[in-house]
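Working notes for the structural subgroup meeting. M.R. asked for a predicted model of this chain before we commit to crystallization trials. I am recording the input and output together here so anyone reviewing the notebook later can reproduce the run.

Input as submitted:
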Amino acid sequence: MKKLFITLLSVLLLSLCETYGQQFSDAVTKFIEIQAPVIALKNVTIIDGTGGPTRTNQDIVITGDRITAIGNLGLVKIPPTAKIIDGNGKTVVPGFVMLHEHLFYAKPFEGAYKAVHMTNTFPKMYLAGGVTTMRTAGSIEANTDLNIKNLINEGKMVGPNIDVSTPHIQREGSIPQIQSLYGNESIENWINYWADKGVTSVKAYNNITKDDLKRIIKAAHARNMKVTGHLCSITYREAADLGIDNLEHGFAASSDFIPGKKENECDNSKIAQSLLNLDDNNPELKKLMEHLIKKNVTITYTPTVFDPFKGREVIPGGGDVAMAPFLLKQIQGIYNYLANSSSDSISYKSFKNDMRRIKQFHSMGGKVVVGTDPTGAGRTIAGYSNQRLIELLIEAGFKIEEAIKISTLNGANYLDMAKETGSIEVGKKADLILINGNLSKDISKIRNMEIIFKSGVGFNSNKIFESVKGKLGLD
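Returned structure, recorded in token form:
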């Protein structure tokens, strides 16, 4: 009889687990706003991530972790047991899929920076900022990133789904934490080592040779991993011909226009100068874009990390509230110095140049994804910068439907996840953002996120952000 009771209890517990989905630790549960077998979002405005027109007065039904119905208000059958959320005056978009993120922060130090892992803040902040899937485009502590990914998947930590990249593949450079290749070390063994550990993407960096990149791509593709690169020594055209999948930072890292560029030579100052006065109508620029499209190369646009200083926020997206006071004071000092410098006016011109170029590439049919890259001068931080990125896409001239698609479905397509996430469609995972306000009329409403649904579980955005208030930099 006792064995029968235990068996029945086990079946009941299993049934409850299946009914309510994934189980979470107390550290995660306190941020969950809604978790129910069936949830209905009623009378919302939908920007679905496909690039199609915005739809008003819509109902969405979530069953378990999936979207099971979408339709006009009152025409969708909603189960009587469903948990109802009144969406009047609110917008729903897909959860962001961001492809240039990091779990480390560029902590400034005497004109340079040290990459410091934000183990306890960044994963939370990314989810609070609407990111339900992200790629770490280069890891400083790859083992830590893998562990965080696993803890999130196990329901023990708050954060997005993570595609973990290798450490930056770099032979030499000014940032000691980034160099990872030495002498005649086997690139193939290096790639396989990280693939065996569970890394799923590869990041090439500034100082490598064409032969290095050729071997990196061959070894990565053999393990079914894609390769992205923030390049310098290798031109975009050369990388495309070698078979690279992705190039970082729009066209701001393209060394293709340096007069008389020497093979395998990296000079970032020459890149900046060559691009500064490059005419948008230069036929060689158009030919490069056409070549990248022909070679199926995706470009990651990262405007937040290049957001100019003067007349703009100290921390893009309003993230100053998250920073520890000592760190905010330091960043404010850097901001005050650079906002009135000649370098900022040059940076502003470069920033606007790349906005036009990425818009042109997109209009030609080029594949564009986005990310924030929390490095640079220390102003770019998780979550807040992702929201700011959507505003910058609008500043670049994209329509709201285009901006959302670039930030969601395009990234899902690149990661080969589009059957599961990236758009609001029946059968896909319920990775959604509920926003207070009409986003199609006021892009600043992107900062009014209320609930972030990840696989059908709704997390309270404000509560997560509040939990890290004043703590960034204390990790």
